[in-house]
Amino acid sequence: PVLDTEDAWVSVEGPVSIVELALEQKRIHYPLVEHQFVLCTVLYAIMRLSLKAVKPLSLFDSKGKSAFFKDLTSIQLLPSGDMDPNILSIRQQFLLKVVSAAVQTLCSSQKDTEVSEEEYFPFEKGKNWPTLAADLAQYLQVSEDLVRRHYVCELYSNGMDHLGEE
Fold first, then answer.
1. What's the predicted TM-score (pTM) here?
2. CA-closest candidate to residue 119, choices 99, 137, 134, 105
3. Which residues does the UniProt record annotate as the domain Rab3GAP regulatory subunit C-terminal (predicted)?
4. Domain parsing of the chain, residue ranges
């Protein structure tokens, strides 16, 4: 982009402006950033919901694993549309675990002290873990409908019929 500068600023001496520094940076490869975002979201869900026996890198194929250790400005081969059915199965099981753990956490906290989800997760106001799992399903090539159905089944099985109807 072309930056217009006023005449008064042309003769100014000093360090390079932050705009010029930003323009000199290499462009990032956005799909690689999305790939990193998926891993961060998976790791955060594992940590926040205390999921046991989950190996986060098992959710990715060999191309996906190698892309995590590359510079964000490099263009990497990312996983294509065709995935190994075993990896898809592992991904599906992970997302269903996330939904189940979120519902269990919400139900146990409401039974104990009648607190809302926002109060139980104070730093995550508006964070709806089942919805996040459904959004993550798009990136992981798992059916969103399957995740949403599991969420409704979990709500009904935990006696939260009013939320399940919604």
1. 0.74
2. 105
3. 1-166
4. 25-163
